[in-house]
Amino acid sequence: MQATPFQPNEGKIEGVVIRHVDITKQKLLELQLKEYAEKDSLTSLFNRRYFEKQLRKEVSYAVQQGTCLSLLYIDTDNFKDINDAYGHPAGDRVLKELALQITKVTRSSDIAARIGGDEFAILLPNTDKAQLEPIANRLSLCIKKLEIREQNRPIDITVSIGGKSFKDDFPLESMAKWVDKALYLAKDMGKNQVVII
Q1: Do 178 and 116 share a structural domain?
Q2: In the record, which residues are listed under signal peptide (predicted)?
Q3: Which helix (H) or strand (E) holds 181?
Q4: 3 state SS of 148
Q5: Tens-digit pLDDT string for the chain (197 aa)
Q6: pTM for the full predicted model
Q7: 113 and 145 both lie in a single domain
């Protein structure tokens, strides 16, 4: 709504012109654009750009408050084999199901994202190593129990998970390297493993 004084002779105000404009469509479009900028279109999890922005914010907050911050990387084991055997639509189904399981395990304060083709990340504020391990193990177990069938055959889905909890030392540049190292160890141990360092 917009109100403008009515002054026909550039003198005394003789009234007010009220103009009502419906901005519902504009606001819906703005919300849609925000979602496109922040969300992964396939999984509806946050995208890498938004995740990295939130990581910087959470690191800053944890340093100021003196709290823990944990990070998990999740990599789908043998995802290329799933795509090759069943096709990309089946691979997309698997990614959507993985995202759903991640959503079920995470708390409202956690930030989950799809950061690559078959890679996911979870940022867990106020979470130390003792809390991180059960969360990662629960996620791994939930994913192992998934029952997805394609062409009347079950698709076996497992993930490798690497993670680390940080406190008092938040080297933003090396956080990803530490968690990548944990993920590499999980894959090196034969996949379908959780490694928290």
Answers
A1: yes
A2: none
A3: helix 172-188
A4: strand
A5: 777 776 777 777 777 767 777 777 777 766 666 666 799 999 999 999 999 999 999 999 998 999 999 999 999 999 999 999 999 999 999 999 999 999 999 999 999 999 999 999 999 999 999 999 999 999 999 999 999 999 899 999 999 999 999 987 767 778 889 999 999 999 999 999 999 99
A6: 0.83
A7: yes
